[in-house]
């Protein structure tokens, strides 16, 4: 008989379904086929992990059928197949005191003892796991010659309680720029275009403009604000001319610009929140 193995990983905090699935698999398949079955977990607070290791003995065809069935069970609860891990990796981690393990005996209960409660248990006791730092964001689109003023605007908006997406902060070195911008566009509820003389000549500014224009035309789920320098009004795209914009000169401070825009941002966020509440989102 040949032997085949798989390792599946699951969210430590949402383990109830995972442990039930493990129990079901243990009861469903005979001991002479499922010859190795164990769960491995980390109780290290900064690296909570949970795995299941399965070792199957049988023909290639029967193993293929077994892992197809098992895969459907684990996939249905959100587990992730870890083809990059081996049993040796788990053993090595245990030797470094990074993992605990429990061998699952045929017909026996799962006796693993976890140091931390599940998220379901904590939710029932009043804890909230929604990301408190994922508030609605304002995307700052600017040409590189205005980066210093755009950065001051970002800081002024932050002082007024407005979260932002700003390339100098939100794109890491080595990260794909187009991917990062697309993610920022998707996450942002508001965009501020700082229209300077070379804004429309910039490939990245045009890329950002086109993404938000497409989103506005398609679902109209974004507020578009424009800061337009006095000598750029004639170059403003028709689409932006149809939306009320803030015309500025060199004497208008960044702090004043922020104070002029913040009320519109707050009003839009409030409308979005009311709409989501009315739709039960």
Automatic annotation (TrEMBL):
Domain (TIR) ranges = 134-265
Name the SUPFAM superfamilies on file.
Toll/Interleukin receptor TIR domain
Q: Which SMART domains does the entry mention? A: TIR
> What organism is this sequence from?
Rothia nasimurium
State a single Pfam family of this protein: TIR_2
Which Gene3D superfamilies does its entry note? Toll/interleukin-1 receptor homology (TIR) domain (3.40.50.10140)
Q: What is this protein called?
A: TIR domain-containing protein
Lineage of source species? Bacteria, Bacillati, Actinomycetota, Actinomycetes, Micrococcales
- A biological-process GO annotation: signal transduction
Q: Which PANTHER family match?
A: NON-SPECIFIC SERINE_THREONINE PROTEIN KINASE, SAM DOMAIN-CONTAINING PROTEIN-RELATED
